[in-house]
């Protein structure tokens, strides 16, 4: 253990958790503020996370990558577990996750529509440029 780094028994410090998970300390503090992650403040002010924190952060990252917001994740997190690289919910969450998938599908459809409109505007501008440059 590097000199000057306090020993942690049964847990990890924020820097080590960040290193193990690839998540910045700033993001880990954000997860705490959102109620997704819990640490204990030691007398020296260091945050200490329990042994499950690495798994918890992996689940959080997977759910964020899937498009869920932190409020939804906070509600679902107690019922999630890792099975290798996969996040597995308890059976009671399937309906909620299905609703989230439908929400994401609606957002994708709206984005595709917006992209189409933007393409039309760009195409019109390019057509206008060609006409103007010929004239």
Walkthrough of the structure:
- The structure is a single chain.
- The protein is of the alpha+beta class and 135 residues long.
- It folds into two domains: 1-89, Multidrug-efflux Transporter Regulator, Chain: A, Domain 2, CATH 1.10.1660; 92-135.
- The chain has helices at residues 14-21, 25-33, 53-65, 70-76, 94-134; strands at 11-13, 40-41, 47-50, 80-83, 86-89.
- A three-stranded antiparallel beta sheet has the order 1-3-2. Strands 4-5 form a two-stranded antiparallel sheet.
- It is elongated.
- It starts with 10 loop residues before the first strand and ends with a helix.
- Residues 1-9 have low confidence and may be disordered.
Q: What's the order of the H and E elements?
A: EHHEEHHEEH
Assigned CATH class of the largest domain:
Mainly Alpha
Task: Tell me the span between the first and last alpha carbons.
Answer: 74 Å
Q: Globular, elongated, flat, extended or rod-shaped: what is the shape? A: elongated
* CATH domain topology of the largest domain: Multidrug-efflux Transporter Regulator, Chain: A, Domain 2
List the domain count as a whole number: 2
State the helix count: 5
Strand tally is: 5
Within the largest sheet, what's the order of strands? 1-3-2
Rg, Cα atoms, Å: 23 Å
InterPro entries: DNA-bd_dom_put_sf, MerR-type_HTH_dom, MerR_fam
GO molecular function: DNA binding; DNA-binding transcription factor activity
Protein name: DNA-binding transcriptional regulator, MerR family
Keywords: DNA-binding
């Amino acid at each position: 253990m590097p000199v000057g780094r306090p020993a942690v028994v049964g847990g990890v410090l924020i820097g080590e958790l960040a290193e193990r998970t690839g998540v910045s300390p700033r993001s880990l503090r954000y997860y705490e503020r959102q109620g997704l992650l819990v640490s204990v403040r030691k007398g020296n002010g260091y945050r200490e996370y329990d042994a499950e924190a690495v798994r918890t952060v992996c689940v959080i990252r997977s759910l964020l990558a899937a498009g869920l917001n932190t409020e939804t994740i906070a509600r679902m997190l107690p019922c999630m577990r890792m099975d290798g690289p996969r996040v597995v919910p308890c059976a009671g969450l399937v309906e909620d996750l299905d609703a989230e998938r439908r929400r994401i599908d609606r957002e994708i459809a709206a984005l595709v529509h917006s992209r189409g409109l933007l393409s039309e505007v760009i195409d019109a501008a390019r057509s206008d440029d060609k006409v103007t440059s010929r004239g």
